[in-house]
Amino acid sequence: MKKVIASGLSLIMAVVMCVSLLPVTALAADSDFVIVDGVFLNAAGTKVDGVLASYKGTGGHVVIPDGVKHVGYYLSNPFANNTAIISIEMPDSVETIGSSAFRRCTNLTSVTFGNGIKQIFDVAFSHCDLRSIDIPDSVTNIGNEAFVGNTNLASVTLGNSVETIGVGAFRNCTSLKSITIPESVRRISEGAFADTGITSITIPQNTYIVGSSTLPTFPTGTIVHGVAGSPAETYAEYWGFTFVAIDSTIPTDPINPPVTTEKPTAWAEEQVTAAISNNLVPQDLQAKYTQATTRAEFAALAVALYEQVTGKEITERQTFSDTTDINVQKAAAIGVVNGVGNNMFSPDTGLTREQAAVMLSRLADAIGKPLAQQAATFADNGSIATWAIEQVGQIQAAEIMGGVGNNTFSPQGAYTREQSIVTIMRLYDVVK
After folding, report:
1. Helices (H) then strands (E): counts for the chain
2. pLDDT value at 304 more than 50
3. Which phi and psi (to 5°) does residue 26 adopt?
4. Do the domain assignments include residue 338?
5. Residue 74: exposure state from Cβ atoms within 10 A (0-12, 13-18, ≥19)
6. Running DSSP on this structure, what letter comes out for residue 209?
7. Coil, strand, or helix at residue 99?
8. Which of 8, 319, 320, 389 could form a disulfide with 345 if both were Cys (CB 3.0 to 4.6 A apart)?
9. Which domain holds residue 389?
10. What pLDDT does residue 45 have?
C-alpha cells in the first residue's frame, strides 16, 4: 500500500491549507487514512473529533479503521470520484456518512455499515454501483439523493428506526422493484423513489408522503396500499394512483410510533389459528401478524409445511454469504427459494406478492404435488415478472392467493405475516 509520510507539523500545515484552523491532526495506524479532530462537521458550525478526512490507499476492499466517527466533513469528501474502490466495510464507531463522501465511486458495488451509524447525509453514495444495501436499525435519517443513480441497486432493507427519507434519496435506482417501509418512517420526501421499478407500495398509517406539483414520490401508476383515511390515501388521490385499503388495528396517534397487532385481523384469524394447530407456524412468527413478512420468515413457514406434510426433516443445506439461517438453507436446498445474486439471499428484505406465489408453487412441487397449470387472469398481468407469471396463475387457480381489489394482483406489493400464514394453510389443505 502507498504510505503517507509526513511529520506531525507538516501534516497539520497541509490540512490547514485546505480547512482553516484545524486544532488537532492524527494519522491512523494504517496510514492510508488521515483522521482529524476539531473540524466543522457541517455549515452550522458543529465541531467534531474522529473524522476521516482523506484516503490515500489504492482501493479494492477498503476497511475503515475502528475509532473513526465521521466519514468526511464540511467540504471534505474523502472517497468521492475514486473509481478504484470496490467495497467498503465500516466499524461500529462510525456515526455519520458525510455529504458526497462516496459520490461517483462508480465501481463501488457493496458497503457494510456498522451498527452505530445514525445519519447518511446528502449525496453520500450517489451514482455508485451498489447492488444491495442493508440500513442498520441505528439510522434515523437518509439524506437527499443519498443513493440516487445506483441503477443496479436491486435490494434495499430499511432499518426500523429510519424516520425520514430525503428528497430523491433512491431516485433513478431503476433495478429496485420493491421495498418495505418500516412503521418508524414519518416522512418520505418528494421524488424519494421516483424513476425506480416500484409498481406497488404499502405505506404505514402515520407516514406522510411529500410530493411536489411536478414530481411524485413514487413512479407514476404505483399502486398504493394503506389504511383508509391515512396520508397514503390522500397521496394516492392527489396523484391519481390506485389506492387499496388494508385492514389495520394500528393506533392512529401521530406522536407515538404505531405498533403492530399481536393478534391476526378478523379475516385471517380462523386460518391462522388452524395453521398454528397444525404446527405450521414457528413460535417466533406467532405475533405481529400485520407486519411485512421477510424472505427468511417465509422460508421458515415453507420448511415447517414441508416437514409436517412429508414427515421428513430436510437434511440438505445450501449456504449463502449473508445469512446462516437454517430454514433459509433448508428451503434453498429443496428448491423453494433462490438467492438474489452474488451468493446472497437478502434474508431481511420484505417479501413481495409475486415472490410468495413462486415460493408456494415451488413448495407444492417439492412435496410432490404440483399445482395445475393455469394462466393468470389479473388486470395487471403485464406488471407481473416473467419469472413469476406462470406460478401466479397456478396459485390463483388453486385459490391459494387472490387479488387485492379491482382484479389486480399487485405483484410487487408487500406481503404481511398473516397473509403468509393463511396461504401456507391453504396450500397445506391442498397437498396434505
Report:
1. 8, 20
2. yes
3. -135, 150
4. yes
5. middle
6. E
7. coil
8. 320
9. 266-431
10. 65
How does DSSP assign 122-143, residue by residue? TTTTTT----EEE--TT--EE-
Residue 378 lies in a domain: yes
The answer to whether 292 and 416 have CB atoms below 8 angstroms apart is yes
Residue that is written with C-alpha cell 398454528 in the block: 276
Task: Please tell me the distance from the alpha carbon of residue 34 to that of residue 71, in angstroms, as a whole number.
Answer: 11
For 361-398, what is the HEC assignment?
HHHHHHHCCCCCCCCCCCCCHHHCCCCCHHHHHHHHHC
Q: What is the pLDDT of residues 142-188, one digit of tens each?
A: 999 999 999 999 999 999 899 999 999 999 999 998 888 988 998 99
Report yes or no on whether pTM surpasses 0.90. Answer: no
The helix or strand, by DSSP H or E, that contains position 36, with its residue range, turns out to be strand 33-37
Of the candidates 166, 217, 167, which has an alpha carbon nearest to the alpha carbon of residue 194?
A: 217
Q: Which cell numbers in the block locate residue 279?
A: 404446527
Q: What is the pLDDT of residues 376-410, one digit of tens each?
A: 999 989 999 999 999 999 999 999 998 887 788 88
In a domain, 365, yes or no: yes
Number of separate domains in the chain: 1
Closest-CA residue to 53 (of 31, 30, 29, 70)? 70
Say if 89 falls within a structural domain.
no
Where does the pLDDT of residue 117 fall: very low under 50, low under 70, confident under 90, or very high at 90 and above? very high
- Which residue reads 434515523 in cell numbers? 140
Name, in order, each residue with C-beta under 8 angstroms of 13's C-beta and a sequence gap of 6 or more: none
Measure the CA–CA gap between 137 and 129, rounded to whole angstroms.
23
364 in Cβ contact with 370 (< 8 Å): yes
